[in-house]
Write a structure and sequence with these properties.
Elements lengths: L1 E5 L7 E2 L2 E2 L1 H17 L4 E5 L10 H16 L4 E4 L6 H4 L3 H4 L4 E4 L9 E5 L2 E8 L4 H8 L6 H17 L6 E7 L1 E2 L18 E2 L9 E5 L5 E4 L2 E3 L16 E7 L5 E7 L6 E6 L1 H6 L10 E6 L8 H8 L3 E6 L12 H5 L4 H12 L7 H24 L2
Parallel strand pairs: 1-4, 4-5, 5-6, 8-9, 9-12, 10-11, 12-14, 17-18, 18-19
Antiparallel strand pairs: 1-15, 2-3, 7-8, 13-14, 15-16
Helix pairs in contact: 1-2, 5-6, 10-11
Length: about 400
């Protein structure tokens, strides 16, 4: 059986205020085209269909379009809710939608009830484990504790019990939305540590032929049978080095797994640049990044004038600007009082300017402004004290 494994669509999400709906629509078109061209038997979506519980209307419309297009080419689709989704909202109409071959699995109580598809070698049972918030599902699943590992283990116990009652040779696939030990995270995933230790061991999925995971945005192999597809688009600059793909999985007659990566469309490459402003504007090696979405970290010891505008002239798609000036290390043991002892107000003010500029103190004009300001304060103080006598 040929399976297309994807996850973490995050429909409705933007990238540093850049609307990604067009890129997400291009991905959906690519997904449908890939399923058709590779004669896929099932499409799996392992959670985080939407970016938030109440998605914008445009995202809902795109999701509806995706379902219609998948149903239109006759490819069964199994989909679970993730920690970004509202399970109840995503699951509305699931029974009716199932008649079109779209199987939404959003209810934790249904973990042990599979979608059964068949090929020339027999049945394949697909079990959908939606994101399991420990505090909310512990009692439903009869878990021994309110932690991620415990509730997933309880869900998998239901999967294994159902599978044991099926005819010998029935192959099995689990969809789950979780943080599995050995996976590499990025800045894009929402923290799921509330409710206990977030990571669960890959052994949790023992006894099934393939575990199609969602949640982490990097495509990765935990082991031969446990894989993350990753998100189809980058949602933070921490994903700049990701290759965005889906897994095309071949499930053999004996349950053996082979998988290859299918690249997703890239709306615009990402680049993370670091250095002094003048160097970044002049370095010919950076020409290849001029059309990228760019994050720039400036290391100038003194904050340059109009840095964003100047960067935008060379890198018109710069989206993020960070300042991390290179400065000489300070004596961490010297107390504030020690540093001020014996210094005049003028010297303290000039030292402060030098501190925030990475060692560059005020010029003559700025010193004159500081002197004038300090003198004005002294006059005001003297007049106030005189009025109080």
């Amino acid at each position: 059986m040929r399976i297309l494994h994807t996850s973490d669509w995050h429909l409705g999400r933007s990238f540093h205020r850049v609307d990604l709906l067009g890129a997400q629509r291009a991905f959906v078109e690519h997904l449908v085209r890939t399923a058709r061209e590779h004669s896929v038997d099932a499409v799996l979506v392992a959670g985080d269909v939407y970016d938030r519980a109440v998605p914008p209307l445009a995202a809902v419309e795109l999701f509806d379009e995706a379902l219609h297009r998948l149903a239109g080419i006759g490819v069964p689709t199994v989909m679970i809710s993730g920690n970004h989704d509202s399970a109840r909202r995503l699951g509305v109409g699931a029974g009716l939608i199932e008649r079109a071959g779209i199987h939404l699995r959003t209810d934790p109580a249904g973990c042990g009830t599979p979608v059964v598809l068949a090929d020339e070698h027999g049945d394949v049972a697909f079990y959908g484990l939606p994101y399991l918030e420990p505090a909310l599902v512990k009692d439903t699943l009869g878990a021994r504790a309110a932690g991620h590992a415990a509730v997933l283990e309880a869900a998998m116990d239901r999967v294994r019990a159902d599978l044991a009652a099926r005819p010998p040779g029935t192959r099995s696939v689990v969809l789950a939305h979780a943080f599995v030990t050995g996976g590499a995270a990025s800045d894009s995933e929402r923290d799921i540590t509330v409710g206990g230790v977030a990571a669960v061991p890959p052994e949790t999925f023992g006894g099934v032929d393939y575990a199609a995971l969602g949640h982490l945005h990097g495509c990765q192999t935990i082991n031969e049978r446990v894989r993350y597809s990753g998100s189809p688009l980058a949602y933070s600059f921490s994903e700049a080095d990701h290759r965005k793909t889906m897994w095309l999985v071949e499930l053999g007659a004996d349950g053996g797994v082979t998988a290859e990566r299918v690249d997703c469309p890239v709306p615009r490459p990402l680049a993370r640049l670091r250095g002094r402003l003048d160097e970044l504007l002049e370095d010919p090696a950076l020409e290849r990044h001029e059309e990228s979405w760019t994050e720039v970290t400036l290391t100038d010891s003194v904050r340059p004038q109009e840095p964003m505008a100047r960067l935008a002239r060379r890198f018109p798609h710069v989206l993020s600007l960070v300042f991390e000036p290179d400065r000489a290390p300070e004596d961490a043991l010297a107390s504030y009082a020690q540093r001020l002892r014996g210094r005049s107000d003028q010297q303290i003010a000039e030292d402060f300017v030098a501190h925030v500029r990475g060692g560059h103190g005020p010029d003559e004009r700025e010193r004159a402004v500081l002197t004038e300001a300090l003198d004005a304060v002294r006059v005001e103080r003297a007049e106030h004290e005189g009025a109080g006598r």
